[in-house]
Amino acid sequence: MLNPQSKSVLDGGKNEESDKISVILLTQNPLTPVYQPPKQVISSIPREISREIIVVHYNFADGIDSADKMSLNISGNEQNNGERILHVRVKDDFASAVRKGIDESVGKFILVMDTDNPYSRETVPELIKEIIENPNFIIVASRFVQGARIQRMPFVQSVMRKGARAIAKYGLNIKNIEDPMSSCFAFSRSILNDISFEGKGKEALLEILVKVKNNKNSNVAVKEIPIKQQATSITKKANFTRIVNYSRAVWDLYRYGKTSKHLNERDIAEQKKHRSILFLSKAGRFFTVGASGLVVNYAASFLLTTLIPNIWYIYATLFGIIISITSNFLLNKIWTFQDKDFSPKHFLKQYSLFMALCTLGAVIQLSLVYIFVEYSHIQYPVSLIMAVAVASLSNFLLNKKITFGEKIWE
């Protein structure tokens, strides 16, 4: 539920809150944002604009009431020259904090900013200027448009970020924006009227973009302005939890798009295209994992013969095969099919099925090579390529359907 005080705004009514800017500052710091302190943000907003600051401290430990006002050396509801600075805390992640901030706010316009990132002081005034001039737009502070200036980051993290962008843009068909995962954006409260913003996980903007896109009655557009980050030695690092949460968010939003009741014929055609892309993407991942298994197989076998010089080479090879199949299973479970159920019974069942189907794939490959060479008189190199292709595809389809319980074409 949104703040009852803002209902007249949502209905288009006029009252003292109708032109207010609600700035929602998100931070994991228990006392005050790392960057952009509330009073500094207020001072950057033109005096003629009515404003309020909602500071949401998120990712608190379990057991803390999500509606609890801050009582840590700060006032829960400060007043700065008549302007409200409200501190609240939630125990969930970024998107839940955004949702909480929206619930507590009363303004016609909402500006969201992750203040644990070092934005320049011009960011807030620029976003406010754009959203007032373009109330039917979502204004995004973008890291990937001309004129943007961001901090350099390690190569691996940069590649992961680009991959996440590609998944969002092409996997969820959000192609009208370069930075769909920005944590600094502004929009009119009215765009939330026709969508269900749940605020789960980390990707608040991505959820809004997907749900607005799937609403056939929406005519909301997106405008990006270049972000300019200040230099700092502190950077947020991507970790395994962040990757898992992002994967879960993308999957949930993909499912939302499939089941939305607001789809038009063009959207349905796009979804069919998306299913094809998703199928090919999973096939590509599966075969990439298979290629990595060859490396793991060789490395494990060679390492064992190095550590135990007198071991029979057949045992070393068998060890390498088992290790490579295990690594293939784990990578496919986590990366290719994004299965998050690691309960012992479920895990062992899937592992057994994967082992059995890999064995079946080997039998299919051997049988086809024999048939092609002995009965079709095809040269061995060509026969081997054909057999590997058939066995690999059948291995992928069978594991997709049987081991991980997915439909074939999705």
Quickly describe the structure:
By secondary structure, this protein is of the alpha/beta class. The protein has helices at residues 7-10, 38-44, 94-104, 123-133, 155-171, 204-213, 240-259, 265-307, 313-336, 344-374, 380-403; strands at residues 21-27, 51-57, 77-80, 83-89, 109-114, 137-142, 184-188, 221-226. The chain has 11 helices and 8 strands.
- Shape field: elongated
Element order, helices and strands?
A: HEHEEEHEHEHEHEHHHHH
Approximately what portion of the residues adopt beta-strand conformation? 5-15%
CATH level-four homologous superfamily name of the largest domain: Spore Coat Polysaccharide Biosynthesis Protein SpsA, Chain A
Q: What name does the CATH topology of the largest domain carry?
A: Spore Coat Polysaccharide Biosynthesis Protein SpsA, Chain A
Textual characterization of the structure:
The chain has 410 residues and is of the alpha/beta class. The chain has 2 domains: 4-262, Spore Coat Polysaccharide Biosynthesis Protein SpsA, Chain A; 270-403, no CATH class. It has helices spanning 7-10, 38-44, 94-104, 123-133, 155-171, 204-213, 240-259, 265-307, 313-336, 344-374, 380-403, and strands at residues 21-27, 51-57, 77-80, 83-89, 109-114, 137-142, 184-188, 221-226. The chain has an 8-stranded mixed beta sheet with strand order 3-4-2-1-5-7-6-8, with helices on both faces. Mean pLDDT is 79; it is low at 1-16 and 62-76.
Furnish the topology, listing elements before pairings:
Blueprint: H1 7-10, E1 21-27, H2 38-44, E2 51-57, E3 77-80, E4 83-89, H3 94-104, E5 109-114, H4 123-133, E6 137-142, H5 155-171, E7 184-188, H6 204-213, E8 221-226, H7 240-259, H8 265-307, H9 313-336, H10 344-374, H11 380-403
Parallel strand pairs: 1-2, 1-5, 2-4, 6-8
Antiparallel strand pairs: 3-4, 5-7, 6-7
